[in-house]
Design goal:
Radius of gyration: 24 Å
Distance between the termini: 78 Å
Order of helices and strands: HHEHEHHEEEEEEHEHHEHEEHHEEEEH
CATH class of the largest domain: Alpha Beta
Number of helices: 12
Helix content: 25-40%
Largest sheet: 10 strands, mixed
Number of domains: 2
CATH architecture of the largest domain: 3-Layer(aba) Sandwich
Length: 457
């Protein structure tokens, strides 16, 4: 009798167990991956690095062995765009996955209110918020440039730890002051460290990585350097090295080359900390906009530079390194943008990105760089002050291989076909008025969406 009852119980239990997915989940049972621990993530952002100012992007006068090595072991993107041609909007796009004007940052957030053109909207789920849901610890090291008001601090925006510079630019890489004020912080505490900013940020990043490595939980490190933004102030020893190697370089170019090479060396030191942990780590490197031509930057053959809606102001070097998922020494010619970093990193970390964002995951092209990509529609908006703008905007739209450019408020719209004219030399606005009008109508609709979001404190 007991055996009969026990047999009946076991059969009933087996039936209920087999039906468990019906009661616990609307869909079929999902098999957990063998390794459920997501990878660590280090996202490195350079400031004003030109598209052609690394060895792996064609520079012949710059030695960048550490970033070149990262590209050789990973993937280089040749058509990657910053979401704006200046700093703050691009940083907003990186952390929000959205067009910057749709999150309140159409222009540069500055320390003086009369020349401030952005306010990062509240209540937006930023990348550190999302990764924390997956158990990530988060840190921001280096340049912030997304607000000085109460509630705009990195600790108020999803980061567990901050060690860096809150403001827009430093007037000196050694004093770290801006308009005579100190914006260096350790979390919320003002600090006055000694040393060149690039070296300090690399040192602080290494310290954070070492601390994170003592805990099995994954970490996300957002490392934003000031370099090579002006003032072009390399360490004296770096400049002397360049002068000895390339005595024929102009003084302007030599200073910028030295500042970039010092940045590359600092990234090499950070990478040594990453490798010493022995942990699986995604490393992404990108610039926030094109290089500053007045500082001697090299944007390859692309037209113009920082502050411009032509390719030289928007197209930036980008490198992805994740040996388990990305083929080594590969180049991707798909079109990517800084707003794509959030959904891409979320997918790699096993996190669902928010609905309604503008970026798209690039994982499919990271894994198969030759995969066909449907034509993309990318918008670029910059609001600026000064006599050339007076608070007005400049814009661009890339639609497949077509590009609409409105480079200054007082200038006419231009139309280019990038497949046949990658250097934007042949304006087709007058010869193709139908395409011009179509692009202008699309741009108008985008600007209306951005107009729904307040951008003043």
């Amino acid at each position: 009798m007991r055996k009969s009852i026990m047999a009946t119980f076991l059969v009933a239990f087996a039936i209920l167990y087999s039906l468990a997915p019906v009661f616990t989940h609307a869909g079929p049972r999902v098999q957990e991956p063998e390794d459920s621990t997501p990878p660590d993530i280090v996202l490195i952002v350079a400031d004003d690095l030109g598209w052609g100012d690394l060895g792996c992007f064609g520079a012949t006068d710059i030695q960048s062995p550490h970033l070149d090595g990262l590209a050789a072991e990973g993937q280089r993107w040749s058509r990657f765009y910053a979401n704006c041609c200046v700093c703050s909007p691009t940083r907003a796009s990186i952390l929000s996955g959205c067009y910057p004007d749709r999150v309140g940052v159409p222009g540069v957030i500055r320390t003086h209110a009369e020349n401030n053109w952005g306010k990062l909207a509240e209540g937006i789920p930023l990348l550190p918020h999302l990764l924390r849901q997956r158990g990530y610890r988060t840190a921001a090291i280096g340049k912030w440039h997304l607000g000085l008001e109460e509630g705009d601090h990195p600790l108020d925006r999803g980061f567990d730890f901050f060690h860096g510079f809150l403001g827009d630019m430093m007037d000196d890489y050694y004093t770290h002051l801006r308009h005579g004020r100190n914006y260096m912080r350790w979390n919320r505490t003002a600090i006055n460290p000694a040393g060149h900013a690039t070296s300090l940020f690399a040192e602080w990043a290494g310290d954070a990585i070492d601390r994170f490595a003592s805990d099995p939980a994954p970490y996300f490190l957002y490392l934003a350097f000031n370099a090579p933004h002006g003032p072009i102030q390399p360490p004296p020893e770096a400049l002397e090295t360049v002068r000895r190697r390339l005595p024929e370089l102009s003084a302007k170019r030599a200073r910028l080359v030295a500042l970039i090479e010092d940045l590359d060396a600092a990234i090499g030191r950070v990478r040594r900390h990453i490798e010493s942990t022995g942990r699986e780590t995604i490393i992404v490197f990108v610039s926030d906009n094109g290089g500053e031509l007045g500082a001697g930057a090299n944007n390859g053959q692309l037209r113009d530079g920082k502050g411009s809606m032509y390719e030289g102001g928007l197209r930036v070097p980008a490198i992805f390194h994740y040996p388990r998922r990305i083929p080594r020494h590969s180049t991707c010619t798909a079109v990517g943008a800084t707003m794509d970093l959030l959904p891409t990193l979320c997918e790699l970390a096993g996190v669902s990105p928010p609905t309604g964002i503008d970026g798209q995951s690039l994982v499919a092209w990271l894994q198969a760089p030759d995969k066909t990509q449907p034509p993309r529609e990318l918008y670029f908006v910059r609001r600026e002050g000064g006599p050339a703008f007076c608070g007005l905007t400049s814009e661009a739209l890339r639609l497949g291989d077509w590009k609409l450019v409105h480079n200054r408020p007082t200038e006419s719209f231009q139309l280019f076909e990038l497949q046949s004219d990658p250097l934007e030399k042949n304006d087709l606005a007058s010869s193709n008025p139908r395409k011009l009008r179509e692009m202008q109508q699309r741009l108008s609709r985008h600007i209306q969406q951005g107009g729904r979001v307040a951008w003043q404190p």
